[in-house]
Amino acid sequence: MADPELEAIRQRRMQELMAQHGMGNQQNSEQQNSQEEAKREADERRQMMLSQILSSEARERLARIALVKPEKARAVEDVILRAAQMGQIVEKVSEERLITLLEQINTQTTKQTKVTMVHLKLDQFEPN
């Protein structure tokens, strides 16, 4: 007698857990969707601000840079947006000004390249 009752309790508990898990997934996906939407809106605002600050030539150059080195383009965008927020930019940033900013960032973020040479003796290997 106890076995069917125990089995019924187990089944009810399993259904409750599955219902809770299903609700959790739905809440997680809703939360994830809202986070993605917020990120998309922030990117749109960022692009709108950049389009107001940069000249068309500077925007084109920055877009080409972003294709090759997205992290560098993002760093330049950050510098430009910060300067605009602080009131340091009073007119549209030209391509020449963008190039000087890029050069400044390049000098600040140069990486040291280290080359290690490994010498192998060919006489250690026997031909097949």
UniProtKB/TrEMBL annotation:
GO terms for molecular function: DNA binding. Coiled coil: none annotated. Residues 14-46 are annotated as: Disordered. InterPro entries: PDCD5-like, PDCD5-like_sf. One of its GO terms (cellular component) is cytosol. Residues 36-46 have a biased composition (Basic and acidic residues). Residues 25-35 have a biased composition (Low complexity). Belongs to the PDCD5 family. This is DNA-binding protein.
